[in-house]
Structure formats: C-alpha cells, structure tokens
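Reading group handout, session on sequence-to-structure problems. Before we discuss, look at one worked example. The prompt was deliberately terse, the way you'd type it at a terminal:

> structure Thiol-disulfide isomerase or thioredoxin

The input record follows.
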Amino acid sequence: MSNSARWSLVALVMVAALVVAIWPRGEDEASSYDDRFGQTGRTPVGEVDADPSTLTALRADAALEACPEPGTAGAGAALAGITLSCLADGTPVDLADALAGRPALVNLWAYWCAPCAEELPYLQEFSARAGDAVTVLTVHSDPNETEALGRLVAYDVSLSGVQDPSGRVRAAVSAPPVLPVSVLVRADGTVAKVLPQPFHSVDEIADAVDEHLGVAV
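And the output record:
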C-alpha cells in the first residue's frame, strides 16, 4: 500500500470516529435521571409497592419527625392539589395545606444522589436552628421508599418528609431535572425561589432563606 493510500485510510478512520462521537444518542442511552423519572416512557427505577412489614420496621428505625400539621392553603399555593405519603408513617399529606401559614424550605432529594447525602445533615442542623420560623420538608423523588428510609437512618437525618415517586413536586415548581433542589416557599404558598444546587453549610442555607424569604435565623 502506498503512503498516500495509508494516509487516506487513517483520515477515513478519524472521520468515522468523529461521526460516532457526535451522532445523536437514541432513547436507550437517555440519562440516568430521566430513566429514574420515567421520562423516556419506561418504568421508573425503584420499588413502587414495598413490603408493608419492611416499611414499618424501617420507619421505626428512622424515627422521622411527623409531617407538618395541615393549615388552610391560599388559592395561589404552588403545591395545591398534590397529596403524597408521609415518610414517617405513610399517612397522606396535602402539601399546600401542610406548608400553609409559615415560610418553608422544601428539599427534593433521592437515595442515589451523592450531593444530597452531603446536604441533608446540614438541612437537619438548619431546621434545629430555625425552629418554628421555617418549615423544612424533604421530598424523596424516587419510587424506592425502602432505600430512602435506609439512607436517612445511615445519614442520621430525622427531618419530616414525603414520598414523591413520580416527581410531582418537581413538575409543579418547574424545577430542572437535577438533584438536589431546594424550593423556598412563602407563607402564602407561592414560590419565592427554586435553587437547583446543593448547600455546603448551614450558613449557606440560612443566607438563602434570609435573601429569598426574608427570614433571618
């Protein structure tokens, strides 16, 4: 083979490799987040119907705070019409009513999210620091409730939370497809800010709450 032929072959191989690299990916190569939320039309990852006895045991181990007592939500509440199950005991929670009357930080997370694992203990500390001034509610955004409870035990986090297997909260507040996401909700139920980022300290959380909700803690 002549030198010119060899160089032509090398050039052809390089062009082919470039085409493969930039060629649009099909549905089977969708991102793991989209797969988990079923956005490609597949069944979401996780256990939708966990064994009741397993959940009971895990709830006892987790000893989570009870979900907020319901109030009366205003007409413009962003989470109106969304009822989810409380991670602490499985009871239904109307989110708009549960958050009515007090500023809130609603944190979307999932058991498979590494930044969430770092952030959740800071949210626990912030909740203790804020007391009754701010409601802190976690939203587990994956169908696998058993994994959620197990991780909360491992993280030593006992915040009140709800189970959101189909990402209804994320859709209601138009949050981007990332985790964690913190949604700052005013006392009237309207959304002050959606923060698609992890917090790295309690002070970061306090600064965000002060800036967007006007509550200094």
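Points for discussion. First: The beta strands are 83-86, 92-94, 104-109, 135-140, 161-163, 181-185, 191-195. Second: The helical segments are 3-22, 32-36, 52-62, 95-98, 114-130, 145-155, 168-172, 202-213.
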